[in-house]
Amino acid sequence: MKLSPMKNALAIDLGTDYTRIYYKGEVTIESSVIAYDSQSGKIVAIGKEAAEMEGKNPPLITVSRPLVNGVITDFDLALQMVQGFLANIVGNVVKPRVFITVPCGVTEVERRAICDILHESEITEIYIIESPIAAAIGAGCDVNLARGMLLVDLGGGKCDIAAISLGQAIIGRSVKIAGNDFTDALIDYISEKHSLSVGTVSAEKLKKSIGCAFMREHNDIDEISGFNTHLKKPEKIAVRSEDTREAFAPLISKIAAEIKATLDEIPTELLGDIIDDGILLTGGGAQLYGMAKRLRGELGMKVFLAEDAEMCVIKGASYVAENMDKLSGNTYIFTKA
Ligand SMILES: Nc1ncnc2c1ncn2[C@@H]1O[C@H](COP(=O)(O)OP(=O)(O)OP(=O)(O)O)[C@@H](O)[C@H]1O
Ligand SMILES: [Mg+2]
Fold first, then answer.
1. Residue whose CA lies nearest to ligand 1 atom number 9
2. pLDDT tens for each residue of 148-186
3. Are 189 and 48 spatial neighbours (Cβ–Cβ below 8 Å)?
4. How high is the pLDDT of residue 7?
5. Which end of the chain, N or C, is more open, meaning fewer C-beta atoms within 10 Å of its C-beta?
């Protein structure tokens, strides 16, 4: 999708793990993390720099993630984090209009919190797009058609499942199972099977290198270091991709059950389209090896992984931000806050 950075529109995907901001044709990706002095409250670092401190911080510095399962849980920290990102990316100029994405079915309070952050940042023209709609547009789909599609955006903290037709999510739910639960499942599995306590960063690396939802062609092996809680000493062990498949199985079944429950609520005409076209997966968590293939098996339906899956939401929001004038009038894709 070619964007024409003409109008300096801004698009923001405020995610549990990453904040992606589009401005003047560029997407900046920052970790949704903020570090502050525990006594004075003074901000020490934001974004990637703050994420690098996680788990390594002295007691005088608190490292925090202001979003949980896709929604803001600490307004003040989220505000300072977003304002810091905007200052770095946009600077002190008058802020242009902003398109911001929200998970499916957020409450009025959660939606207001997101808008208040932008209002406090002196942005007055705010438009809201639901994440699955943005994801579908970012994956190259024409969401304005009178044709049903099912999109599953599996991020780090939440999984949005939405049936879309005529630019709107007809049925949508945001489920609290996502990529970070897969990392936690791996940590628990290694602790139970090997009595090894491992950190989140190492487990996430292992998940990406050999983790799988469906059997890999080769049963790949990678090593992970941690602390053996029985032997009371540091240890390095080898983990096979097959082990990870076992660790992830219950989570994948839960996601499949949520998709089935959503399918169950979809009007028959739309369901016919979805059965013909299949389900589209986006989000970083969907990039786990074999996720689409495994869900295909669980659901008995076609399931596809979008290209550049973790960037679909911001790509879609940027497209709408840059093409708002062409899109407005007869679309439900976005609403003015
Ligand atoms: N290749 C990969 N294999 C497995 N997991 C991956 C891979 N790449 C990214 N992830 C996982 O994707 C998740 C982050 O996805 P994403 O960037 O879409 O989340 P987010 O938008 O910040 O969160 P959310 O949308 O849930 O609020 C993390 O859990 C990360 O470990
Ligand atoms: Mg996301």
1. 284
2. 999 999 999 999 999 999 999 999 999 999 999 999 999
3. no
4. 58
5. N
Q: Are 109 and 54 in contact (CB under 8 A)?
A: no
Query: Closest residue (by CA) to atom 8 of ligand 1?
Result: 284
With CA atoms as reference, report the closest residue to 144 among 135, 152, 133: 133
Looking at the domain assignment, is residue 5 inside a domain? no
- Is 127's pLDDT higher than 60? yes
- C-alpha of residue 228 to centroid of ligand 2, in Å: 34
- On whether both 121 and 263 belong to a single domain, the answer is no
The closest residue, in CA terms, to atom 3 on ligand 1 is: 288
Q: Going by DSSP bridges, is the β-strand pair 334-336/149-154 parallel, antiparallel, or unpaired?
A: unpaired
Ligand 1 within 6 A of 290 CB?
no
Is residue 254, in this structure, part of any structural domain at all? Answer: yes
- Looking at residue 4, what is its pLDDT? 46
Summary count for the chain: helices (H), strands (E): 11, 19
Query: Would 75 be classed as within a structural domain?
Result: yes
Range of the domain at 185: 179-246
Rounded CA separation 271/268 (Å): 5
Do 209 and 317 have their domain in common?
no
Give how many domains the chain has, as a whole number.
Answer: 3
% pLDDT > 70, the chain: 97
Please report, for the domain that includes residue 225, its CATH number: 3.90.640.10
Per-residue model confidence (pLDDT) at position 93 = 74
- The answer on pLDDT for 12 being more than 80 is yes
Which atom of ligand 1 lies closest to the CA of 153? 25
Same domain, 104 and 234: no
Mean per-residue pLDDT for 124-143?
95
